[in-house]
C-alpha cells in the first residue's frame, strides 16, 4: 500500500505529469478541472499561445471521454486525462474504453488526419463545419480535427485487454524553437 | 440586455444596433447558450439598418465553432438582404489561434464588412 503511494508519486514526478484525473468525467467535473488546469498552465508557462493550445486539446480529449467512453456512470464517461511537461513543451494524454466495433472507424478517421498537412486539416475542418455533425456524433464532429490542428503532433493506440478495447489518445504541443 | 459571462461562456451584451461578445466559449450545452443569443441577434437586426458585432474571444471549443459558423452565416445573409453589417474580430496580439480563427470565418463571408483587430 505504501509502496503504491510512493510509486504513484515518483511516476508522476519523474514523467513531469503535473495534472492527472482518472474516474468518472462529466461536464460539471470538467468545469472544475478546467479552472485547475488553467491555473497550473499559467503558473508553469505564461506564454499564452502555447497554453491555449494545451488547454484546447485537454478540453477536446475530456469531452471525448464524457461523450463516448464505453464505461459509463450516469451521465459521466469513465477515463483518464493528464498533462505533462516534456523537454520541449507539453504532452496531453487521454485513455478510455471504447466499443471494439468502433475501433475500425476511429482508426480510419485518425489515420487520415495524421497524414494531413495544415492546409488539408483546415479544409477538413471547414468542410465539417459546413456539413454539420456526422451520424452518431453528439458534438460537431470537429474534436479530432481540432486536436490535430492544435497539436504539434498526435498519436493513438488501441489496446485489447481482458476483452476490453482501450483507446489511448495523445497530443504534443511544442514550444516554438 | 446583457447575458453575463459564466466560467464556460462569454458575456454577450446587446444594445441598439450592437452585439458584443467577450470571453471564452466552451459550454456544457451549446444550444442552451446559443438559442437566446441568436434570438436577440435576430430581433436586433430586424430593427436596424446598420448593425455592429464586436467579438473578443480568447478560446472556443470545437462544439462552439459550429455555433459561430451559423452565427456568421446569419449575419452574412442579413447583409445580403440589405442590412449594413460590420463585424470586428478582436484578438490578442500574440494569439495566433484566435487570429487564424477570425481569418477563417472571414473567408466564408461575402457581404459582411469584417475587420480583424489586434488588441496588443
Can you list the strand order of the major beta sheet of chain B? 1-2-3-4-5-6
What do we call the CATH topology of chain A? Heat Shock Protein 90
Number of domains of chain A: 1
What's the β-strand tally of chain B? 6
Helix and strand content put the structural class of chain A at alpha+beta
Structural class of the helices, strands and pairings of chain B? alpha/beta
Per CATH, which architecture of chain A?
2-Layer Sandwich
CATH class membership of chain A? Alpha Beta
> In percent, how much strand structure appears in the residues of chain B?
25-35%
CATH topology-level name of chain B: Transcription Regulator spoIIAA
DSSP strand (E) fraction of chain A?
25-35%
Tell me what the structure shows.
The complex is a heterodimer of chains A (177) and B (120). In chain A, 49% of the residues lie in helices and 29% in strands. Chain A has 177 residues and is an alpha+beta fold. Chain A has a single domain (2-174), classed as Heat Shock Protein 90 (2-Layer Sandwich), CATH 3.30.565.10. The longest helix of chain B has 19 residues, at 62-80. Chain B is an alpha/beta fold. Chain B contains three helices and six strands. A six-stranded mixed β-sheet of chain B has the order 1-2-3-4-5-6, with helices on one face. Chain B is globular, with a radius of gyration of 13 Å. Chain A binds chain B through residues 27-28, 31, 34-35, 47-49, 52-53, 55-56, 59-60, 63, 122, 125-126, 129-130, 132-133, 139-140, 142-143, 145-146, 150, and chain B through 7-8, 26, 28-29, 58-59, 61-63, 65-66, 69, 92, 94-97, 104, 108.
Structure keywords:
heterodimer; A: 177 residues; alpha+beta; 6 helices; 49% helix; globular; B: 120 residues; alpha/beta; Transcription Regulator spoIIAA
